[in-house]
Amino acid sequence: MKDKEIEKAKTYMGRKVAERIEFSDKGTWRALRSAESYVSKLGYEYGSLCYPMPLAFMMDRYNLPEKWKNMTAKERNNVDGVIIGDYREGPVSVIIFNKSSILNIKEEIK
Questions:
Q1: Each residue of 31-55: pLDDT tens digit?
Q2: What is the C-alpha R_g of the chain?
């Protein structure tokens, strides 16, 4: 692996990645539904789909993320993770950001 590829695997949108899981279920919408189910089982709530932009998710159910295009930069920096990829046919990836990088970004925004 090249250095840039290693760095890319460790960060996304300038934030440290704690976990990245790929879903490759065959069939229309199946990979996306599996990814949504996975984040829901972890206790996250996800927003509305706005292809080709990321699908945000957060732990706070009373602050459910909206469509990515309607979110401010501050709101985007506060999400716990995103789902990205080919939503219709797959594969899609769930990216969960490192908690400490979330805290650092929140402190920088204040």
A1: 999 999 999 999 999 989 999 999 9
A2: 14
